[in-house]
Amino acid sequence: MAAPALPPIVVPPSVVPPSVVPPSVVPPSVVPPSVASPSVASPLAVHADWSVAPAKRWMAVARPGRGGWRIGAPVPVGEVATLLDRLRAAAAGRPVALGVDFPLGLPRAYAGTRTEVDFPAFLAGLAARPAFFDVCATLTEVGPERPFYPARGVRGMTRAAHAAALGLGGPSALSRACDRATVLRPAGAPLFWTLGANQTGKAAIAAWRDLLLPALAAPAPPLLWPFAGPFRDLLAPGAVAIAETYPAEALRLLGLRLAGSKRRQADRAALAGPLSAALALARATPAPALAAAIAVGFGADAAGEDRFDCVLGVLAVLAVIDGRLPDTAPADPWIARWEGWVLGQTALPREAGWVHPPG
Q1: Is 92 exposed, middle or buried (CB count within 10 Å of its CB: 0-12, 13-18, 19+)?
Q2: Is the CB of residue 151 less than 8 Å from the CB of residue 141?
Q3: pTM strictly above 0.90
Q4: Positive or negative, the Cα torsion across 272, 273, 277, 280?
């Protein structure tokens, strides 16, 4: 049976030059924050920074305490198959609010070709279609049932050719609304693209296949935001709510400015003062090991950037839980059912032709 019809797909035709927005000015195209509910049970708040490489998967955990939160030093994610069970055990009956640094959703141009009712239904159905996760080596292999590309770099390959192989209108159709550039940040990488330092496709493959598919088939499956409703509404005792979080977005939402690169320890260490101030604003007390890690820029090894990212991510999750950032996505049916959104993101795409639905 075909999925119920949604409004026409809108693929913005062009990009407006970046606007300069002073830090004190709120961009005009934003998602209004919803009112925080004082009745939300204090959850265990977590952000997991994801990667294909297990050694670069780290998470930060915030536990509720008297008058605020206590955040420990980042720890490895560990065995993926047991992650949600371990978090439930640590929560001891409280809800788990889990932010993850991988895509949760599909671009609307691709979703418009599907017969499932929404992204969670599509995702659950992948258990019977494991070839979906096989990355294509050539464009001739690319199609709706194997959209990830390329397996390796090939001279002359383009995202336009990738989109054409998928039957989409152009390279912009590969992106979800939340992947597009805003007045606050540049564009993120398209979901199905698997090449380059900022690609997210391989992380999505690993996380969807190894974490989400088994969890969705379990007796108590997690709730996926925004498809299941406003984030705070999902935080019932014993529940696990999972939302996409983007550390680069969190950096800006928290009012932090990183001079240089997050890959350099010295640049991360230079942000120690502002990051500590962001912790204080969140009423979050760092454990001694976390305070020490912040002071030295999270270490000199290659995973230092991942430990840095997961602390940014958990602070964004706390800002949503506490009502300082919205727990809803824009009022767009494609976003609500198929594309998803980045938790806490307020700025909408800046592209000309983008249709902002009422509501």
Answers
A1: exposed
A2: no
A3: no
A4: positive
Specify whether the CB–CB gap between 111 and 334 falls below 8 A.
yes
**Which residue's structure tokens are 């955040």?**
71
Q: Quick check: bond before 150 cis, omega within 30?
A: yes
Which long-range contacts link 216-220 to residues 24+ away (Cβ below 8 Å)?
Answer: 216/120, 216/123, 216/124, 217/124, 217/127
Question: What is the distance between the alpha carbons of residues 196 and 211, in angstroms, rounded to a whole number?
Answer: 23
**Contact between 138 and 277 (Cβ < 8 Å):** no
Cβ-contact 100, 48 below 8 angstroms: yes
Q: In the numeric block, which tokens belong to residue 293?
A: 């890690």
The pLDDT tens digits for 214-240 are 999 999 999 999 999 999 999 999 999
Contact by Cβ (8 Å): 100, 242: yes
Q: How far is CA 166 from CA 36, 170, 246, in A?
A: 41, 10, 26
**Residue 358 in this model has a pLDDT that exceeds 70:** no
Could you tell me if 182 and 349 are in contact, meaning their C-beta atoms sit under 8 angstroms apart? yes
Are 122 and 355 a contacting pair, CB within 8 Å?
Answer: no
Q: Are strands 96-100 and 240-244 parallel, antiparallel or unpaired?
A: parallel
